[in-house]
Design a protein that fits this description.
Shape: globular
Oligomer: single chain
Radius of gyration: 16 Å
Strand order of the largest sheet: 1-2-3-6-7
CATH superfamily: Peptide deformylase
Number of strands: 8
CATH class: Alpha Beta
Largest sheet: 5 strands, antiparallel
Number of domains: 1
CATH architecture: Alpha-Beta Complex
Length: about 170
C-alpha cells in the first residue's frame, strides 16, 4: 500500500475511458483500494481537497471509485450513473488532477448510481446535493471527461488562492 502520484492535467491518460472490472479481477483490487485510500488522504493533507478519487487518476484505467459517503469509505465498482431529475445546479468543481484550479460546471441535483462492492454484490443508491455532484465528477473521470471540458463558459475558471500562495511564495 502506498501513496501514488496523481495524474495531472495535460496527461492524455485522463481523457481515456476506463475498462470494466471483471469478477475474476476482484482479488487484484484490494491493494489498489488501499493505494486509492492512502493517495486520497495524502491529497487531503496537502491541498485540503479529497472526498473521492477515481482509479484513472492514479493511472489504473478501471471503472473504480473510492469515496466517502456519510464519513464512511465506499468502493464503487463499475458504477453506472443515471438521472431521473431535471434539477440542475451550478457548482465550482475542484479536482485532484488540477489542485490549484476551480471550474464552474453544471451538475444534476440528484443521481442514481448502480454499482458492485468488493463482494460483487449489486447496489442501487440515490445521492443528492454535494454527493451527487461529487459522484458525477468521479464518473466523468471513468469516462475520460474532465471538469474543464464541462466548464459553463470561458470565464468559469478560478485559481484557488490558498494553493497559489503555497506554491508561489
Amino acid at each position: 500500500m502506498a501513496v501514488r502520484d496523481i495524474i495531472l492535467l495535460g496527461d492524455p491518460r485522463l481523457y481515456e475511458p476506463s475498462q470494466l472490472v471483471k469478477l475474476d479481477e476482484l482479488k487484484d483490487i484490494e491493494p489498489l483500494i488501499c493505494d486509492l485510500h492512502d493517495t486520497l488522504i495524502d491529497c487531503k493533507s496537502k491541498y485540503g481537497i479529497g472526498r473521492a478519487i477515481a482509479a484513472p487518476q492514479i493511472g489504473v484505467m478501471k471503472r473504480l471509485i473510492y469515496m466517502y459517503i456519510d464519513k464512511q469509505p465506499v468502493v464503487l465498482i463499475n458504477p453506472d450513473l443515471t438521472f431521473r431529475n431535471n434539477g440542475i445546479v451550478e457548482v465550482w468543481d475542484d479536482c485532484l488532477s488540477f489542485p490549484g484550479l476551480k471550474v464552474k460546471v453544471q451538475r444534476y441535483k440528484k443521481c442514481h448510481i448502480e454499482f458492485r462492492d468488493l463482494n460483487w454484490k449489486k447496489y442501487l443508491i440515490e445521492l443528492e446535493g454535494d454527493l451527487s455532484e461529487l459522484l458525477q465528477h468521479e464518473c466523468d473521470h471513468l469516462n475520460g471527461v474532465l471538469a474543464i471540458s464541462r466548464a459553463i463558459d470561458d470565464k468559469s475558471f478560478a485559481v484557488k488562492s490558498e494553493v497559489l500562495h503555497d506554491t508561489v511564495c
